Amino acid sequence: MKHAPNGARARAGWLALAALVLAGTGPAAATAAAAADQQAPRHAPAAQCQGGRLSASAAGGYNQVRVTVVNKGSKPCTLSGFPTVALAGQGSPDRNKPLSVARQGSAKPVQLAPGGRAVTTITFTPVLGEADGYCASGAKPTVAPTMVLGIAGTRTQVAPNDGGEFALCGGTVTASAFRSA
């Protein structure tokens, strides 16, 4: 039987030792790396948007209003959920007629960078006919020059972009969840 030279035997020993070391530490190293990833500091989510740092504008048609909300603050914030909706006369958002809101879609947090925008769409049953409109249900139409939206804990008063009035049948509107614009 022929023996391997001492150099070859030494290399084989080192290779075997390296294989054992790698086999023993490979999964442990992966586990340690995963644990380090889990312990790594994560960025805190942005604070909830505050009404005083938001502005809102509305543009609409005969049976819906698209409301755009803008973060006017200097820091990112999170907006989520649905607006509340009421109709009001000119002057005071405190003197309003609350409407029931049927929520459409699922609400997910929307991150708004400074200057970032989110939108929601308010849809209502339209008034039919011309000047003295009517409701298909026979109910009397509700007409108001402004709409009051509850957004991020404050009330924001918006008017139709055409200078007219909001006119709807019934006391329920549908609102979509806020989403990025």
From TrEMBL:
InterPro entries: DUF4232. Pfam families: DUF4232. The keyword Signal applies. The keyword Signal applies. Residues 88-108 are annotated as: Disordered. Residues 1-30 form the signal peptide. Keywords: Plasmid, Signal. Residues 49-178 form the DUF4232 domain. This is DUF4232 domain-containing protein. It comes from Streptomyces goshikiensis.
